[in-house]
Amino acid sequence: MEVYAYELLCRDSHENRANVIDGDQASSQVLLRTFTDLSIGEVVGEHKAFINFTRNLLLTSPPFSRTQLVIEVLEDQLVDSKMLAALGQLRAQGYTIALDDFTLNSCSFKMLEYADIIKLDVLALSPKELEHHVNHLKPLGVILLAEKIETYDMLEQCKKMGFELFQGYFLSRPQIMLGAKYAESRQTIIQLLAQLNDPKSEIDQIEQIISQDPVLSYKLLKLINSAAFHFVCSIESLRQAITLLGLIQVRSWITLLSMASIDGKPRELSVTTMVRARFCQTLGEAVSGTRRSDTYFTVGLLSTIDAFMDEPLDILLSKISISDTLSNALLHHQGLEGEVLKTVKQYEKADWDNIDWDMLEARGVDESALSHFYTESLVWVTGALETLVF
């Protein structure tokens, strides 16, 4: 449940796949975008970055970090003596080599001695085929990575089979524990969320709640003084922080900081939540034409609460007092807030076929603007991330 790496992919159309005519150009653009236009730290932090390499790119040593770059060899490349020699050279230089969508055959077998990581598509292989691959590959000492993990149950099944790394959309899906009581910390957080999201709450009440938790108070002040916000003065009190930020933003941030303190949840879930909330905020500002974007931030923030609390979203929302606008946006993607949330979630998964581009373009948001909002969200989160202590 800890992040080992990100995979960075080229997308240049509305389609949920790369419309790649020139694979060399596509991978080159990802490399240049990651290591030159942005800094690698802004994109993946201290984690590794898996990037697809074509045969031609393998023949030229990349001038990038060997500690963070994982060279992912695409499955459809011509395997010959030249390519194998290139893999051997890259391995000798200290690069990590991963084989993508691996299936055992006479060609792929030749690459095994150069591989550190083998990626197996658990949806493309039958259970018997998956077991056969694991039994053959495990004795070789390579790291096995299960791709297309969609649910918590799939994750647990692959862990039992001997996989060490896992990739897929399971991260934001909750593990449902029917009949289980909340741990004390989660019960406290639910009570806190109920108070924070009560529209009738006043600044004095919010300040009193926060001040009862010294750690929470410290985190909030540290956050507001971080690079994520651009106040010219140093914030020295909770009341000053609440006044400058506004009650709605304070509610949102305290909600996030509270959820981030839950034991047994991966750090990356908080990162994903922060990126989504910021993305919703910036996109919401653009499509609504207003700077009052706190509601959009809150929608993005609460959209992952089910994964934090391991309970369905509709049940959790019934326990806290939020407006019908927020509830309908979260549960049914209704209203402009709901449209923004749906768009952000589709963008996260590169599900661009289903994004309502007509709605976005009618409101002045094109593909390049949406890409900019997402990238800006990643950069912004790095400025706030140090506040979340796990």
Kindly describe this structure.
The chain is of the alpha/beta class. Helix content is 52%, strand content 9%. A seven-stranded parallel sheet has the order 1-2-3-4-5-6-7. Helix 3 links the parallel strand 2 and strand 3. It is elongated and about 70 Å long.
Secondary-structure map with pairings?
Layout lengths: L4 E4 L14 H15 L2 H5 L3 E6 L1 H4 L10 E5 L7 H12 L3 E4 L6 H4 L7 E5 L5 H11 L5 E7 L2 H10 L3 E4 L15 H13 L6 H9 L2 H11 L13 H8 L1 H14 L6 H22 L5 H9 L2 H5 L3 H5 L6 H9 L2 H14 L8 H6 L4 H18 L6
Parallel strand pairs: 1-2, 2-3, 3-4, 4-5, 5-6, 6-7
Could you list some keywords that capture this structure?
single chain, 390 residues, alpha/beta, seven-stranded parallel sheet, elongated
What is the strand tally?
7
**Rg estimate, integer Å:** 23 Å
Form type: elongated
Taken as a percent bin, the fraction of beta residues is: 5-15%
Helix content: 40-55%
Strand and helix order: EHHEHEHEHEHEHEHHHHHHHHHHHHH
Arithmetic mean pLDDT: 80
In the sheet with the most strands, the strands line up as 1-2-3-4-5-6-7
End-to-end distance, in Å?
13 Å
Structural class: alpha/beta
Unreliable runs: 15-20
| Separate helix tally | 20
The main β sheet shows up as: 7 strands, parallel
